[in-house]
Amino acid sequence: MIILGIDPGYAIVGYGVIEYNASKFRVIDYGAITTQAGTPAAQRLDIIYGALGKLIEKTKPEVMSVEKLYFNTNVTTAIRVAEARGVIMLCAQRHGVSVAEYTPLQVKQAVVGYGKAEKHQVQQMVKMMLNLKEIPKPDDTADALAIAVCHAHSGFSRALGLN
Q1: Going edge to edge, which strands form the sheet with 12-21?
Q2: pLDDT of residue 155
Q3: In the prediction, which pLDDT does 78 show?
Q4: Which end of the chain has fewer CB atoms at under 10 Å, N or C?
Q5: Which residues pair with 31 in a beta bridge?
Q6: Strands (E), 35-163
Q7: Alpha-carbon distance 126 to 111, whole Å?
Q8: pLDDT at 8
Q9: How far apart are the C-alpha atoms of 101 and 51, rounded to whole Å?
Q10: Which of 88, 81, 93 is nearest to 5 (CA)?
Q11: Which residues, in sequence order, are CB contacts of 137 under 8 Å at separation 6+?
């Protein structure tokens, strides 16, 4: 199964594409889609949609696992990230890719085995599990790979239901 993990953002959308087969991982691609501050909001969302669409066409994932938003004290940032997340989910739908959503707690639990794990612990586990030479940068990229691994560990057993 090819899984596209997404850490949604407005300035940076982290992505990680992995293949999960017979309890083994293979990294296909990872990186970040970025938008520049000062660019009009609609244009930034269009950049995210276009780049993600190209990534989907190139890697052909069977499912996209996306981190659910959690409460953020900065309402303006939370709204912008929610807008980007909506565009991300629309892009998956338009490309025929199922979407599974996971909370940060679920991701930590699936990757580290502890729902309150620290960010660096999650990043180290991603590096080890995926046999990477170093922790991917920016952090959003490592987070996206963790979200993909989360789906492989928890979502795979519900492959048809996704959530």
Answers
A1: 24-34, 12-21, 2-7, 63-67, 98-102
A2: 54
A3: 83
A4: C
A5: 15
A6: 63-67, 98-102
A7: 7
A8: 95
A9: 21
A10: 88
A11: none
**157 has a pLDDT exceeding 60:** no
Nearest alpha carbon to residue 136 among 13, 17, 30, 25: 30
- What span, in angstroms and rounded, lies between the C-alpha atoms of 140 and 84? 14
Cα gap 55→34, rounded to integer Å: 14
pLDDT at 71: 62
Identify the bridge partners of residue 29 per DSSP, sorted by sequence position. Answer: 17
SS3 12: strand
β pairing state of 98-102 and 24-34:
unpaired
Q: To the nearest whole number, what is the mean pLDDT of the chain?
A: 90
Q: How many CB atoms lie within 10 A of CB 77?
A: 13
Name residue 79's amino acid: I
Which residues are part of the catalytic machinery? 7, 67, 140
Taking only the tens place, the pLDDT of each residue in 81-134 is 999 999 999 999 999 999 999 999 999 999 988 878 888 899 999 999 999 999
Residue 158: exposed, middle, or buried by beta-carbon count in 10 A (0-12, 13-18, 19+)? exposed
Reported as a pLDDT band with limits 50, 70 and 90, residue 67 is very high
Strand partners, 102: 67
